[in-house]
Amino acid sequence: YTTDGTVHSAALDVRFYTNNQFPNRYHNGAFAAFHGSWNRNNGTGYKIIFIPFNSSSNEPMGYYEDFVYGFLTNPPGL
After folding, report:
1. What is the DSSP annotation of 1-27?
2. What share of the chain is helix, strand, coil (3-state, %, to 5)?
3. Which of 27, 45, 50, 56 is most exposed by smallest CB count within 10 Å?
4. SS3 50
C-alpha cells in the first residue's frame, strides 16, 4: 500500500497506534510524519497523517486523513 502523500515531501516515520489516548476511530491505524519542502516559495508537507486500517483484515482502508497540519506558514528562508 502506498499513499500519494504530498508533493515535495517524504514520510520520515510511520507508527502503528496501539494506545487508548485518542478516540476509537484512531485504533487499528498508523500515523506518518512528513517533512516538507525546503526549496519552494510556499512550503509543503510538514504534517502528520493518519492512515486507517480495516480491523478485520488489517489492511489499509485506501485513504488517509491530515491529523496535524498548518503549523508551518512560509518561514523565512523558504
Report:
1. ------TT-EEEEEEE---SSS-GGGT
2. 5, 35, 65
3. 56
4. strand
Q: Say if residue 60 is exposed, middle or buried (CB neighbours under 10 Å; 0-12, 13-18, 19+).
A: middle
Do 47 and 34 meet the contact criterion of CB atoms below 8 Å apart? yes
pTM of the model: 0.74
Output the nine-digit C-alpha cell for 25.
Answer: 476511530
Sign of the C-alpha dihedral computed for residues 25, 6, 34 and 58 taken in this order: positive
Residues 29-53 pLDDT 10s: 999 998 877 666 666 678 899 999 9
Judge whether residue 57 has pLDDT over 90. yes
